[in-house]
Amino acid sequence: MNLAVHCAQTNLQLYKQLIGEGYSLSDIKRVRDTYGLATRLSSGQFRGCGKTFIAHLVGVASVLTFLRTPVDQIQAGLLHSVYTFGDFGGLPQGFTEKKRDRLRAAVGREVEELVYAFHQLKWDEEDIGKVLRQDSLEFNDLERSVIVMRLAHEIEEHSDWSFLFDNKFDKTEVLRRMSMITEIAERMQEMRLAECARQLVADVQQADPAMHSGNSRYGRVYCLVPESCRLRYTGRRIYRAFTSRASRWLGAVRKMSFGRQP
């Protein structure tokens, strides 16, 4: 298996992959509509390595497609981090119940539950170790789906050697995490996923740490607003500030005028 084939980075590559894996036209339309929503929620966003955020979302959905998961899970893969990074307009950053309501209305209860469960699942290296230390990796349907999404996320995270272009992980950490991911996938009998992880370990071992370019953003997601939009935004702010101050000044003048004795 060539890992790169199964990490689509554009919507068209993902649609082609869905067709190749035998998904129905109605499934592909659902993924297409979800992609449209994902682009609106992640507009102008980039990962710390400089990769567009939407490419990462598509990549996670692509791994899930390779695993032949249900279409609900692929949709959730396209939206997996919207409660952390998604731009919901006037709503504050981070998770809120209003965001759940809006996402549920857009994609349905089943997909939203997966996105919410993904958001709730802690997944640093210590948490991964806790999963491995369990005597049995038997989960209910929702838990298993979310764990698979997390493993798919790890595959996409490191498949293009992003660790060489930001400071989120180094090569040693990536190899350690991928070894743990391989073991979890094997114990869950997710053999296609385990094979992905094994091949990725072999691929990452070829990366030369001396080629690390670093990045001051430390793995964060950041947003770049087009210059034309910045100018319009700045103009509106100046206009509002001017009219607000002018209004207060006129109000003060009127009070002074009405307060004078004839």
Describe this structure in words.
The protein contains twelve helices and two strands. The protein is globular. By secondary structure, it is an all-alpha fold. The chain has a two-stranded antiparallel ribbon with strand order 1-2. It folds into two domains: about 5-210, Hypothetical protein af1432; about 225-260.
Topology:
Layout: H1 11-20, H2 25-41, E1 45-46, H3 53-66, H4 71-78, H5 82-85, H6 97-107, H7 109-120, H8 125-132, H9 141-158, H10 171-187, H11 191-204, E2 222-223, H12 227-259
Helix pairs in contact: 1-2, 1-3, 2-4, 3-4, 3-9, 4-7, 6-7, 7-9, 8-10, 9-10, 9-11, 10-11
Jot down its keywords.
disordered N terminus, Hypothetical protein af1432, 2 domains, mainly alpha, 262 residues
Short synopsis of the structure:
This protein has 262 residues and is mainly alpha-helical.
Indicate the CATH topology of the largest domain.
Answer: Hypothetical protein af1432
Strand order of the largest sheet: 1-2
Q: Count all strands and give the number.
A: 2
Global geometry: globular
How far apart are the termini? 93 Å
Give the name of the CATH architecture of the largest domain. Answer: Orthogonal Bundle
Can you tell me the residue ranges where pLDDT is under 50 for at least 5 consecutive residues?
1-5
